[in-house]
Amino acid sequence: MNLKFYTKIAFLGIAISTLSACSKSKDDSAPIVNSSGEKFVFVAYSDGTAGEAANYIITADDLSKGEISIKNNGVETSAYSFLVQNNTLFGITYANYGPTQAFKLNSAGKMEKAGTQVNTEFTGAYTPINNDAYVGVSLSGGIENPEATLYKYDAKNFKVSLRKPFSLDLFKTGEFANYNAVKEIGDKLYMPLNSATGITGKSTAYIDSAWIAVFDKSTLAYKKLIRDGRIGSIGNWFGMQGVEKISNGDVYAWSTSGNALNKALTPKNHSGIIKINPTTDEVDKTYFFDVEAASGHKIARGTYLKEGKFLMTMYQTSEVGAVSGGIVNLAIIDVIGKTYTAVSGIPNHAQMPYDNKTYVDSQGNLAYYVMKNNEGNFYVYKVEVNKATATQGARFVGVSNITAISKLTY
Prior knowledge:
Elements: H1 3-14, E1 38-46, E2 55-60, E3 67-69, E4 75-77, E5 81-85, E6 88-92, E7 99-105, E8 111-119, E9 123-129, E10 133-139, E11 147-154, E12 159-167, E13 177-179, E14 183-185, E15 188-195, E16 210-216, E17 222-228, E18 243-245, E19 251-254, E20 273-277, E21 282-283, H2 291-295, E22 299-306, E23 309-315, E24 327-334, E25 339-342, E26 349-350, E27 358-360, E28 366-372, E29 378-384, E30 389-397, E31 399-409
Parallel strand pairs: 3-30
Antiparallel strand pairs: 1-2, 1-31, 2-4, 5-6, 6-7, 7-8, 9-10, 10-11, 11-12, 13-15, 14-15, 15-16, 16-17, 18-19, 19-20, 20-21, 22-23, 23-24, 24-25, 24-26, 27-28, 28-29, 29-30
């Protein structure tokens, strides 16, 4: 059976996912209450208790306290994943044709559809690029026919403007590559990969290797492959994370030291962070941050904050999840100073599937993190980056899952 079959089975079994897309906010001293003209936006799966039984895009003005409900709030959607570009929320349905629908806030602050629905194919990774587009990756083959396609979506005119097929036979080792994300890095795109052999139940000879494919951002043409043997695979399937360009232009990538798709496969390498020169697309062999040795924990997911600092979920037990799973808590990791600071004020909790549901303000001083506690309730936590503290905020009611947090203006 091919990769497409196995990934479909895995995702239908979990039946929830999304990309957490970031917009911008204000400063560290302000309360979490928005003035007129902007709203926090969430994607929520209803639990059916209020009569609804669907997925909704819902909004909120205040995240500091109270409740955020689906009832009489937001619009229904069939999409499973979302990103923000050009002050527009794009919802992509997980299906062979990948119907994509745009949503915006109208002048009254109400969510409504924008433009026409466009088929963008079976999409497994995507990223905003420039200020007016995003790039997605669609899988069209399997191990016997390792084909995929990069496509560019015009976020102003609501159409696919470019498609470029490429082969996932990138390792040239007999093992099939699987992509975990795609990221804009200057005039290029970085795509962290892992060997997909483990999906079929087989082991992989390259579990202690990190791979990143490099593409031209303008033409979407494949350029080269980056490899490092000090960590395991970068990111996790549909996590849209694992590599990031920071404010000073340097690029860092991190690994859980677990397999991105099969948590039964455990690398020998420690969970750590490597540095890449984005000019030469080469790994900086003089840099390595052994996060596992420094903290006693493995990295689960990461979101960039500011000045080389990341908000990361860290596994608190020996269980290391793949697409989901494991018990985590928050930490601030400084990749420049190579420091680890645990965040206080938030309990241990299960790692949510695919990505961290996190929104970061424009200065990187505040982050808003959605978590599910042991009682099954979803809360927003405000993380003050400079203090490394978290405070519980609003609770979601009538939901079975929260799959995205972002912000739009109107």
